[in-house]
Amino acid sequence: MPRFLTAALILVATSAFAAPRVATDIAPVHSLASQVMEGVGAPDLILPVGASPHAYSMRPSEAAALQEADIVFWIGEGLTPWLERSLENLSGEAIKVELLKVESAQFLSFREDARFEAHDDDHHEGHGSGHAAGGRKDEKHGDEDHANHKDDVDRKDHAHEENHAHEENHANDEHAGHDHDGLDPHAWLDPEIAKRWLDVMAAALAEADPANEAAYAINSAKAKARIDATSASVAVQLGPVRGAQYIVFHDAYQYFERHFDIPAFGAIALSDASKPGPARIAEIRDYVKHNRIICVFTEPQFNSGVVEAAFEGTGVKTGVLDPMGAALTPGPAFYSDLLAGLAATMADCLSN
To answer: Which structural domain, as residue segments, surrounds residue 222?
Structure first.
């Protein structure tokens, strides 16, 4: 058989079993896909590390990767609204897996109050006061009625002040880039959700590439074991500071908080795409002064000097958290490095 014909047959055979072209939106998703595809292929990353997910103009190479993709794994419109139209225009024939629509994953809604547990605390306090008042009513009926009336007036005045402050916060917070209604898209920070996504990725890849189904399944199992090991290490690291109160820059960490049982006290801004208004900063500063807040976390893209100036004189420490891992290198190790980095920063700032 002529040598050129042999080479041509080899080329055809190789292309027939080539791995699907895969595009991913952000580095955490790229990391998970990279682990599932290890030894078979490598996904493309559309959004560069450090770029804002809320508004981005793709470079020609990134648009080409999206256009050539057989499968696209992306978080969803809630994180990258600009990507939805690009998917329609450039990836019409591709399999599109929107990870925020994966079934059996417990997603969370946004929290918009400056203090996350404000409503729960108010409810419990009011409930307790009601029972106490009921126990005293027979002894001093007249005095109790007067006290209850005064409490009602005080509560209404307080509620009016809180509503006014809440409205002022919304008026001053400059929303830009994404809607803060509906589901919180930062679900990659929950290791259990990430493990569920690994299975979904393996299944999608196997459907498009049955020849490598076993490899995808094995890689998914290995990736889940790696996440479990990282989670166990993070839990140990956070153990000594669990229960410490802290403030985050914006509400991006509640999946991490839920999984590792280390809840934040509140947030400075509604999102990383909005600028906190003076009323919201004043509200958070007041909480810091009157509660045992140990650390206030800012983020790399936000001027930490503003936070430091806002909380000057309160004695609170400051740290830098990054849910997107802007300082990390994309690839298979990225996801575990991201979780470990968040834990290390928290443990350092929350320790006495």
So the answer is: 15-107+186-231
